[in-house]
Amino acid sequence: MSPETINLTLKVWRQHGPEDQGRFITYQANDIPTAASFLEMLDIVNERLIVEGQDPIAFDHDCREGICGMCGAVINGRPHGPEKETTLCQLHMRGFQDGDTIVIEPFRARAFPVIKDLAVDRRALDKIIQAGGFISVNTGQAPEANSLPVPKSNAELAFDAATCIGCGACVAACPNASAMLFVSAKISHLALLPQGRPEAAKRALAMVAEMDRLGFGNCTNHKECQVECPKGINITNIARLNREFIKAAVSSPEEIPVFPAGRPEALQMGAK
Amino acid sequence: MNWVVSTFSTSIGKKYLMAVSGMLFLLFLAVHLVGNLTIYGGAEAFNSYSEHLHALGPLLAAAEVLLVLAALLHITMGVTLFFQNRRARPVRYAVDKTGGGGRTIFSQTMPYTGLAILVFVIMHLTAVSRFFVDRTQKTAFQVVTELFSNELYVALYMVFMVIVAFHVRHGLWSAFQTVGANHPKYMPFFEKLSAIFAIIVGVGFGTLPMAISLMN
């Protein structure tokens, strides 16, 4: 059986660097095997561009197995493309029809400045983790498993939250470019386990303050994040974050860290 | 910084203020609707409701002050969130689609329906409230009847009631989600209640002009 191929018209966002204005360029992508993944399709297009002496399209990718959170672009208005709970690398060209026009844009958010073409700077998410998304314990021998009982339902909820790969699709999908689903997943997977409780209050306050500082928008419950999340993370996590935050604010001795006023760091990142 | 100020300056703090003040308005809408439905009992029933309400004196004044404070908070936070959210995405998408099950026409129009409701509330208060209308000569029923005899006003009023219903449709479940009350046990109920209460508010208030014309 000869492999099936399709011809596509691509409208790709091209931007030389953070300072460049950027524009859509149309490419004809002919003879694309339907068995190719979306990123492999971009590889094929890029090889042709290189042969023609043109600049290949820059895009982020790493594991190509749907678990690293490195890839991601907005395909016809949908972060990671139209398929449910799928990262861009796991989206395949068999989902498209011959003659389709595909518009490919980078994730858009003030906190995610474009580095080049489809590659955006998502270090803002790392900064939120650095603000408190961890447990400060010295690891040693693995403790005896039954010394810390964890209810099964909590273990499952924590694991569901921990499947977050930090790809940033929630931010890209949110009409307000809010990072609440990401932060709520990171807060939840620690808050639900006994090991995460001692620092839960400090963590909630610090991560929310950092999220605000980096210039993400505010959640207005559109649920777009939950629709586009490649790991199917639910907005019940956002409700948990809201509970954790208010609990920490009113009933713990912890204080909300105050950051120096001025331009959010996100504006300076990537650029220059 | 004072911990109260810093708490409610955060994105989540602002959302809490939106949600709690919004819940107060939902409660107000329910009470206001029940009161207004006395119109169906005729002029006497409605006038009696109005007199009893005003007989509450300081209690009524306290409720009014509370509602005005909540409105100021809700509007200030709403405007702040609106502009912050616009700033958070300086470059818009060329193609912006929803996967379904996400944003709705109700959720997307919240800032605009909110603004329209503010316009309506001002219009409504100047037309019927005791602060703007002399009640010594006219009964409450007469004030309302006169108002609804203007067809243009009736049409405008009904459009505004649909707008209120839109705002309630997203606002009710959204307020519970924001204060952290989202659980598989009761969230489906709040989501249904959101739709049902929106219809009750829209139809309940929206058909009052018809009730009046039936009375005459």
Q: How would you sum up this structure, described in words?
A:
The complex is a heterodimer of chains A (272) and B (216). Helices cover 33% and strands 13% of the residues of chain A. Chain A contains nine helices and seven strands. In chain A, the strands form two sheets. Chain A has a five-stranded mixed beta sheet. In chain A, strands 6-7 form a two-stranded antiparallel sheet. The mean pLDDT of chain A is 93. In chain A, 48% of the residues are buried. The N and C termini of chain A lie far apart (52 Å). Chain A has two domains: 5-116, Roll (Ubiquitin-like (UB roll)); 122-268, Fumarate Reductase Iron-sulfur Protein, Chain B, domain 2. Chain A is an alpha+beta fold. In chain A, helix 2 packs antiparallel against helix 6. Chain B has 216 residues and is an all-alpha fold. Chain B has one domain (3-86, 104-215): Up-down Bundle (3 helical TM bundles of succinate and fumarate reductases), CATH 1.20.1300.10. Chain B is built from ten helices and no strands. Chain B has helices at 3-9, 11-36, 43-54, 58-87, 105-108, 110-128, 140-148, 151-178, 187-206, 208-215. The termini of chain B are far apart. The interface between A and B is large, with 54 and 46 residues.
Main attributes of the structure:
heterodimer, A: 272 residues, alpha+beta, Ubiquitin-like (UB roll), Fumarate Reductase Iron-sulfur Protein, Chain B, domain 2, 2 domains, 13% strand, B: mainly alpha, 3 helical TM bundles of succinate and fumarate reductases, 10 helices
